[in-house]
Design a protein that fits this description.
With 103 residues, the protein is mostly helical. Helices cover 64% and strands 9% of the residues. The protein has a single domain (2-102), classed as Arc Repressor Mutant, subunit A (Orthogonal Bundle), CATH 1.10.10. The longest helix has 23 residues, at 66-88.
Length: 103
């Protein structure tokens, strides 16, 4: 891994940014910030094992690489929506609808 932003962020061989010495991806912090409008202090409350420096480094990395991380977020959202659409008419869903209509 290559150290980035004063060794708070590491990039793995798949070019994924992680908060150093944790199992938390930078994109997870960014998603919490985007989805909930969380401040760094609120993120620290949600991730008490992270230091404020780690949280700020993750946010700085996100803002420095916003285009690529936003593209990854959009890719994930499309993937989830595709999975949900395929599951909407699964054999189990069909059976449940049939059972509900028989009541």
């Amino acid at each position: 891994m290559t150290a980035v932003i004063e060794s708070y962020i590491e990039i793995d061989e798949n070019h994924v940014a992680w908060i150093a010495d944790t199992r938390i991806k930078v994109i997870e912090i960014a998603l919490d910030k985007l989805a909930h409008g969380s401040s760094p202090e609120e993120l620290h409350f949600q991730y008490p094992h992270l230091s404020m420096a780690q949280i700020h480094a993750a946010l700085a990395y996100y803002y420095d690489h916003r285009d690529e991380l936003d593209a990854e977020i959009l890719r994930r959202l499309r993937e989830v929506n595709g999975l949900a659409a395929r599951q909407a008419d699964s054999p189990l869903q069909q059976k449940l609808r049939r059972l509900r209509s028989e009541k």
